[in-house]
Amino acid sequence: MPLIEIKNLHARIGEREILKGINLAIEPGTVHAVMGPNGAGKSTLSNVIAGREGYEVTEGEILFNGENIAELSPDERARAGIFLAFQYPVEIPGVTLSTFLKAALNARRKAAGEAEIAPVEFLKLMRDTARRLNLPDDLIRRPVNVGFSGGEKKRADIFQMSVLEPTLCLLDETDSGLDIDALKVVSEGVNALRSPERGFLVITHYQRLLNHIVPDVVHVFADGRIVKTGDASLAEELEANGYADYTDAA
Ligand code: ADP
Ligand code: MG
Ligand code: MG
């Protein structure tokens, strides 16, 4: 069974249809990349999967582990194991990353019928993960994302993803792209989390991220539709030729 299966998904923002019939299945253990021109609807897709407000699903369904998640809130989806990174990192004044993550982790555990993590075990998990990702200790003790630079926000998001161990990781790079430092943190973080039970949807405007995170499947997105699907070589072809072939057809 796919980890997530999206069938004929249509979604709109206000009166405007943005997603025009998306079909996509991500098997556990695979990395899917989504590429495509600005405004194609890539972020909309990740936001709709995560259940963010402001989108209306008008047709189709999203099955996560075989169950329709249409009625679940963003929180419930997160507790079920869906993690959306990067698009709009939230600032939480007064709440440290450590406090925030402990609550989020225990909410996930509770949803899975597991006991709360022991304080000592949690501290060890934070320390080990920070060391593995080369994250400075003080970042963990600061309020979530407040005053973080762009690169620090990316690091903090990868840190959260590593601690929470979601089964579906949605990474929306944002149009500004990544500097070299963030690129390294993101790709190493993702590669360390690749595992047989986990799936990734990596949205990127730039091919270079996919030199570091080699995808199993690449989709080209244009005007609210997946217009082409291929393997990693498709990303290279796009790098060489751009999206013109696909946008003209869309
Ligand atoms: P991408 O991530 O591929 O660049 P988006 O999903 O961000 O594309 O946007 C798809 C389309 O939806 C664009 O035309 C964009 O202008 C529009 N859009 C996105 N967010 C909003 C919004 N909050 N209100 C109105 N239109 C929006
Ligand atoms: Mg955009
Ligand atoms: Mg986008």
Bound molecules: adenosine-5'-diphosphate, magnesium ion
Tell me the name of the CATH class.
Answer: Alpha Beta
Q: What is the level-2 CATH architecture name?
A: 3-Layer(aba) Sandwich
Runs in which pLDDT lies below 50 for 5 or more consecutive residues are none
* C-alpha Rg (nearest Å): 18 Å
In terms of structural class, how would the helical and strand content be classed?
Answer: alpha/beta
Strand content range: 25-35%
CATH topology: Rossmann fold
Helix and strand pattern: EEEHEEHEEHHHEHEHEHEEHH
How many distinct beta strands?
12
Query: Biggest sheet: strands, sense, closure?
Result: 6 strands, mixed
- What's the pLDDT, averaged over the residues? 90
Number of domains: 1
| Gross morphology | globular
Distance between the termini: 30 Å
Strand order of the largest sheet: 6-9-10-3-11-12
